[in-house]
Fold:
Amino acid sequence: MKERPVLISAIILILIVELILMILVYNKVGAERLPSQIGRLIFQLIFITLILTRKSNVGLFMLAAYHIVSGLFGMYSKGSTELLGQILIGFHFIIGIIIYFHDWIENKIGIKNVG
Structure:
């Protein structure tokens, strides 16, 4: 957590939210949507692995873009009028911006980048 704590915290939050959503959806509709949710999780894990192991700017950009695009698509979905849908749209936008600007955020709050 010493190196890039804002980015690591955002990634941990992504994984926690994704797993909670998988459990909630599974409890509500069963295994019907599980394959697409597992695919979404694997897609994100690929970029997270690139970011953490290779410090890949492409992985960083793709993960941020994924969340921003997910937020945009969420705005036009059926569930966007429900409170949980609006919270998830906001989460995607905010987490995408935090991921993309994590260096700037760390500099502003006084965290020195070790890497």
Notes: Residues 5-108 form one domain.
